[in-house]
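Following up on my earlier thread - several people asked me to post the actual chain instead of describing it. Fair enough. Here it is, all 281 residues.
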Amino acid sequence: MEHSMFELPEVETVRRDLERDIVGKKIKSAEAMSMKVLRRYRTRNSFVSRLVGNKITAVQRRGLHITIEFENESNLVVDLGSSGSLRRTANKEAIDPETEVVITFTQHGQLRLLDAQGTSEIFVVDDDSILDELPELEELGLDPVSEPVTWTVFGRSLLQRRVRLKTLLTDPTFVVGIGDIYADEILFHAGLRHNRMSDSLTSQEIRRLHRALVGTLHDAIKHRGTSIPEREFIDPVGNPGEYGSHLMVWGRHGELSARSRLPIQRVKFRGTWTYFCQTQV
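Reply from S.P.:
Thanks for posting it. Predicted structure:
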């Protein structure tokens, strides 16, 4: 699993931290170190000039994009990719060599985007053209964290499709922000196999899957996301996510399952490893 994207719990952890910390702040200055994360621009100045003087009114999440909203009806959009990290720092803190963008507030420090591999992206867009820049936002499916959904609505949506469960869970037009890690964990908690067809589930199995989906995402957010060697996640104050120690199956092949006391299995599914317990059906 090389360079897997951050998933909903990591992005939501960042959003909540920033919402508490930077709403109401005004941008005094901004600097871009290179063009690595400015793929929509020709020059660094054309990006930086759209930031200075703006006051932050909200921090939202749309799918896996963080949108920092400004008073002038424009937004700073950040896609963390699989290696980006937004950090709150003091002005005098040494600049990490991985730093790509530095935003300095009129008071209380800076917001920095760090990214060694350059998989993240940052840009400014007006409210009325955000869907032109990010047309995929119109296709987004359920977001059980920002808009709670009942198991019946979830089930209706699920039964309209005939696709394998892991394929369905990792499809952002069905449910947003789930990749390999959380899909495997959700399916373990639901007791369902990754290759089950979605339209074969009983109402009881749909309820279990819905409960596992909501519960796993909220648990992972409570523990501030998952940081693993293949894809380190560091929150805005510099701490790694702690959900990795709560993973039941992902990355644990050969260890004994907490449910069956039999070794956790793994198989290749659509090109990446899928982890499961024998009790999943």
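The domain at 151-276 is CATH 1.10.8.50 (Helicase, Ruva Protein; domain 3). That should answer part of your original question.
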